[in-house]
Specification:
Blueprint: H1 2-33, H2 35-49, H3 57-64, H4 68-92, H5 96-104, H6 109-146, H7 152-161, H8 165-193, H9 204-207
């Protein structure tokens, strides 16, 4: 029974988190790349960011029903803003000199995106993904406690109704343990994908390191 509830919770998190990542990363890159857009959408995003995901659960249930769609919406909402804001910040922190070189050589949009924007914001994007996963995992358990017939949150609430203290404690500790494992998984993934960062903000064009983590001379560090 425990393995079944855990598998359902992990599947829900994976679905909502994937949708949030696919949506938030392009929007964050766009907002960081085009500052004028922040004037128009910034206030709305800041307003929505202040509302906790749990507060939307009643509306999500009304809009999407009590099935999986409402839970995916809660996870999406929880993960969206950490990924968006960190991606935007990563693009904004790319040194101005690199943008000037990009304009000087009149690099096409695709080249600027793949050689400047994506590598320059990659560490911040991974940080946003890591934070977004943590937020979505916590939001999922809260959603399952309020409106679900399966999952770890439902298991904890069901045990409370039946006064099964042992099941409650196991469920709570499992939530914490799985959360730590997921966070460490993202840390290992970042280390494998971006080995040259090693806690340093930026990537090859910013830190002066090549794709293998070796330091390059100034003449070798180019877009």
């Amino acid at each position: 029974m425990l393995a079944q509830h855990l598998a359902i919770s992990l599947q829900r998190v994976a679905t909502g988190f994937m949708i949030a990542s696919i949506t938030a990363i392009p929007v964050g890159i766009l907002l960081g790349w085009v500052p004028a857009l922040r004037i128009w959408v910034g206030p709305t995003l800041n307003f929505l960011r202040q509302i906790p995901p749990v507060a939307w659960i009643p509306l999500f249930i009304m809009w999407f029903g009590i099935g999986e769609a409402s839970k995916s919406a809660v996870i999406f909402y929880a993960a969206f803003f950490p990924i968006l804001l960190n991606t935007q910040l990563g693009v904004e922190q790319i040194p101005k000199s690199y943008w000037e070189v990009s304009l000087l050589y009149r690099l096409p949009f695709i080249t600027s995106l793949t050689r400047l924007v994506l590598p320059g914001s990659a560490p911040a994007v991974f940080t946003g993904l890591r934070l977004g996963m943590g937020m979505s995992w916590r939001a999922l358990v809260a959603a399952e406690m309020l409106a679900a017939s399966s999952g770890l949150g439902y298991l904890i609430m069901s045990a409370r109704s039946l006064v099964r203290i042992d099941e409650m404690v196991v469920g709570i500790f499992l939530v914490g343990g799985i959360g730590i494992l997921i966070d460490q998984l993202f840390a290992v993934l970042e280390h494998r994908v971006l080995p040259w960062t090693q806690g340093v903000s930026g990537v090859s064009i910013i830190t002066g390191r090549n794709a293998y983590g070796k330091r390059t001379s100034p003449s070798q560090t180019s877009i």
